[in-house]
Amino acid sequence: MGGIFSILTSIFGIFMIVGAILVILNDNQDSGRKIAWILIIGILPVIGLILYFVFGLNFRKPGLFKVRNREFLETFEMRASDRTKALLFGDDQEKKIRERYRSLSRLLKRDSGLTVCENNEIEIITSGERKLEALVSDLLAAKHHIHFEYFYFLKDDGSRKIKNLLMQKAREGVKVRFIHENIANITIWEGYYNEMKEAGVEVVKFTNPNIFLLSKFNYRDHRKIVVIDGKIGYTGGMNIGDDYFFRWRDTHTRITGNAVASLQYCFLNSWITSGGKIEGNLDEFFPESVEVNDDKLVQIIPDEPDREFPILHMGAVWTASHSSRYLYIQTPYFVPPEPLMLALKSAALKGCDVRLMVPEKADLFFMGPANKSFYQECLEAGIRIFEKGGRFIHAKTLVSDDYLSIIGSANMDCRSLELSYEINSYIYSEEVAKKNRRIFLDDLKECREITLEEWKKRPWYHKISQALMRLFAPLL
Predict the structure, then answer these.
(1) What is the pLDDT of residue 33?
(2) What is the pTM for the complete model shown?
(3) Which side of the chain, N or C, has fewer Cβ within a 10 Å radius?
C-alpha cells in the first residue's frame, strides 16, 4: 500500500512540475523571468512550486482589472458628474504638450484613461525634513477630508507624529481615510491601527490574502499618495518613516491644481476596491476650481498587475527610445527587464548622454550584487554609472531633454514595473526638467563614476556573486 502511495505521489509531483513549467512557458512575461522560475523549480521542485504559486503567478490578464475593480468603476460611472469625467479623461489638454510627446501621453492613457492636466503648481521636494514640514502644515489646515495611501507607514518618531495628527483631525470632524499596505507592514500589530480607528480614522487593508490566495502576497501597494481637501496632493518616492524624513535622500512632489484630481481618482479606486465605503456624490472630492500660481502640465499614471499592459514599463521604454540629448536616471534598485535594458543601451549607442545614479551601498544585501550585475553591459554601451555615497538615495526619477520629468514610486526593476501597484507623475515642463537636471548634477558631487576599465578588474568573487544574482534578477 505504501509503495502505491509513493508511486502516486511521485506521479502527482511530476504532473505538478510539468504543469507549472507549461504555465510558465505559455505566459507572456519576460523570458529571463521564465528561465529563473524554471531553474528554481528544477533545482528545488517542492519549494520551487510553492514559491512560484506565491510569488510567480502572472495576474496581468485582459479584463482582470475590470473584474477586480468593478465596484469602483460602477460607483464612479454612476456618481461622478460629466465635469469630473472630463477633467480626468478629456483630450483637450494633450495639444498643449510638445507634439513629440503626445504619443507618450496617449500611450500612458491607454490603460487608466487619465489625461494630461493643466494649471498645476509643483514643488519638487528633495529633503525629508521639508516633506514632513509641508505635510504637517497642510494636514493642520485640512477642512473636509484627508486621504492617505502608503507602502510603509512605520512606528518611529516621524510616523507617530503623522499618525497623531491624523487622529487629531478625525476628532475635529475632518473625514480621514487611511489605506495601509498590510503585507509590507506585517510586523506592525493591529492595535496600532485600532488606535486610529478609535479616534475616528477610517482604516482599510489594501490586500487580504488567505491560504487559498497566497499569490496576493506578491502584489503589493507600493504607492505613496496624500490628498487633502481635493486641492493638495503628495506623491513620489518617500514613505512615512524616519529614514525618509531624516536619513535618506529621496524625491517627492507636492502638487496643487487639476492633477490632484487624478491622485484622488487613484486613491478612491484603491479605497473602494479594498473594501472602503463612500457615501453620496463623488464630486465633493473633486473641487471645481483650485487657485494656483502656475500652469504646469502633469499626467498622473497608476499601474497595477491586474491591468492588461505594464504601462509604466512601456513609458520608461518610450522615454529611453525617444531621448536624444540626455537621459538622467536615479533609482535605488536597477534590475531592468529586457526591453528597458535594450532601450537604454540603444539610447546610449545612438549618442544620447545616458547617466545612471544608484546607491554606493544598497539597503538590502542582495540588491548590491543585483544592481552591479548590469554594470558591464551598460558601460560597454556607453551608459555612464555613478554610485552615490553619503545618504542612501531612494529617489525614483528620470529627466530627459529639458522637457520630460518622471517622478514616482516605481523603481527600475521587475517588481515595480511588473508586479507592484505603483504611481508615477509625468511632468511636461522645460522649467521642471531643468530643475530636475540640476538636482541630478548636484547629487553627482557625492558620487563616484564607475569606468569600464575599472569594472573589468573587480575581484573574481564579486563576478561570481553578481553572475548568480543576475540569474534571479527577474524575480527581484
Answers:
(1) 64
(2) 0.88
(3) N
